[in-house]
TrEMBL record:
The chain crosses the membrane at residues 12-34, 46-63, 83-103, 134-155, 167-185, 239-256. One of its GO terms (biological process) is proteolysis. The lineage of its organism: Bacteria, Bacillati, Bacillota, Clostridia, Eubacteriales. Residues 131-217 form the CAAX prenyl protease 2/Lysostaphin resistance protein A-like domain. InterPro entries: Rce1/LyrA-like_dom. It holds the Pfam family Rce1-like. This is CAAX amino terminal protease self-immunity. GO terms for molecular function: endopeptidase activity. Keywords: Hydrolase, Membrane, Protease, Transmembrane, Transmembrane helix.
Length: 272
């Protein structure tokens, strides 16, 4: 039996994400039946959250049953946390978002989103129920689940099997591919790379969750106010956002590299 500490390698990670997508069919079918019985509108956010959470729990139970996972408080609690460091992480995350907005515009110009896909994204992500539930699903539920799987399980295993750079790159690449569309690939890859780098330095899942939540929350805020904001429309026509974002990103990473350089990070590999 493979050591839990070294799970997963690349093959195991690919199987894990394929299993996650496959097992999602079970709660999807169950909640779709419930939706039809009670005549709940399509794209209901509560149904969507219950489906995702159920899939996540089924995946954790499968991993535990296969002796691949030790659920521990180390998966969620902050380690070596400092307010000043997290402020810099937050500034760096916002800077990354500002840069990615321009990258996404370039991707959209090269690969325009077909109207039916745009309507599908809009209905699935922002349709259905209240803005509060949309916020909970995108800013709280999704970051927790995705960070536990991709950083807490997959990247943790990769760091035991590969070099740090290769581990971060592979986990971010899988994270980007699993979004299943080219328009989210750049943002998912960048978030996965940054969160992966932070995790390799801290072994803190909750810090990665906060990064992911901040990024999703900022993106959601832009999507909510962007279409009705003349200020944002005027800003989009300039290069100021990405230049400011690039400065924030570079200075933030340089500060964090220096901050982590002499840090002594405890080995918590046994937590998963």
């Amino acid at each position: 039996m493979e050591n839990i500490k070294k799970y997963p390698n690349l093959k195991g990670a690919i199987f894990l994400v394929l299993y996650y997508e496959f097992i999602a069919l079970v709660p999807s079918l169950i909640f779709e039946l419930i939706r039809q019985i009670f005549r709940i509108p399509k794209n209901n956010q509560i149904i969507s959250m219950l489906t995702v959470i159920s899939t996540f729990m089924l995946t954790l139970l499968w991993l535990k049953r296969k002796n691949r996972l030790n659920i521990s408080k180390d998966m969620f609690l902050l380690k070596k946390f400092s307010v000043s460091r997290f402020i810099i992480i937050a500034i760096t995350t916002v800077g990354m978002l500002l840069c990615i907005v321009r990258i996404n515009e370039i991707v959209l110009n090269i690969f325009p989103v077909p109207k039916f896909i745009e309507e599908l994204f809009s209905s699935q992500l922002l349709g259905g129920t209240s803005e509060t539930l949309i916020f909970v699903r995108i800013v709280i539920v999704a970051p927790i689940i995705e960070e536990v799987i991709f950083r807490g399980i997959i990247l943790r295993g990769f760091l035991s099997n590969y070099s740090e750079r290769k581990a971060i790159f592979l986990s971010a690449l899988i994270f980007a591919i699993i979004h299943f569309n080219i328009w989210q690939f750049p943002s998912a890859f960048c978030v996965g790379t940054f969160a992966g780098w932070i995790f390799s330095r801290t072994r803190s899942i909750s810090t990665c969750i906060l990064i992911h939540s901040l990024y999703n929350g900022s993106s959601l805020l832009i999507s909510f106010v962007g279409d009705n904001s003349l200020v944002l429309d005027n800003i989009r026509g300039t290069s100021y956002p990405e230049l400011i974002g690039l400065v924030m990103l570079v200075l933030g990473i340089l500060w964090l590299k220096r901050s982590y350089k002499n840090s002594q990070i405890k080995d918590v590999e046994a937590s998963i």
